[in-house]
Structures
1.
Amino acid sequence: MAQESTHVNNAFYDDLGPLWQSGSSHPVALLRAENRVRNPWILETVQKTFRTCDFLDVGCGGGLLTNYLAEQGLGKWVTSVEGIDLSASSLDQAKQTDRTGKVIYREANALCLPHRDAHFHAVSAMDILEHVEYPLDLIREAARVLQPGGLFFFHTFNRNFFSWLTAIKILEWRVRNTPKNLHIYRLFIRPAELRLLLTACDLEVVEMRGLKPVLLQRPLWKMLATGEVDPGFRFSFTRSLLTGYCGYARKRPSHSS
């Protein structure tokens, strides 16, 4: 856990290419498994909250969330879907796999979004808060482009020994082709810390829920034995926020005149 001066490795995203959507010899396969649980939950929450929704995914990567929202929600509950990222190759992959052809993808910095204030009904920052040095700046910018009453979705990792063991060391030991410094322990965020960051940006937490691998599944033991992530690998929600956790917050109404 002595990585205090180490910087997180975000360069590997440029080399993923088709691995975003396929391939089992890389931790991105676990990200796909997480999305199979998180994406329907996000869409369901949007459906229950808004009649129509303009959605922005910050750090969209290869479009795992944005393309899902477009396929399942455009023309129903979702008015527009946009994804921004700094990895041009990841954006290319997202565009190539957008079966609707309607997702807006653009290369942009999460700390300086190219959008006007209060533009979106919902903004997500999934698996990115632990990849930046100053998550408050990212959250503040996301809150800026959110309408009052809009929702901010997030996923990140708790900071404790068990999350260090599972999200860093086990990946390094048991998943093939795990990039060096994929995760840095000091950048993990405790739930109480994240609540404070969100509150500072006028975002009120509505829900937090944990995410964990299903333990009684053959793909988990296969991964530990071979380093390959089977397409059937499953995650499930849990009340425990011990390791990875996600949730959403609502932007408070403005009281300015």
Note: DSSP finds seven helices and eight strands in the chain.
2.
Amino acid sequence: MSRPGFAFWRIFRWLDSMDPAAARHIAEIMDALAEKKVASVTRVMPDPHKDIGLNILSQFHYGANVKIATFETLADALQNIAAEVDSPSA
């Protein structure tokens, strides 16, 4: 079981397309993460045009306190997380 405040990472590097019917399953995953008290969601989406509505789904399925960040490269995502570790907010 996950502790409150855990981080969730998802890398969409190889995503070519997604069937619209998948939105229901993605929403269910988001609801489960929110129920387990996810604190942050980090996505790596190399092609922003392939975002199949994750930002819109996020608004409805994650709480307002969940930090969501999307990056085009894994290196950018890792650099961001390293910066947060070096200078955590109070």
Note: The mean pLDDT is 83.
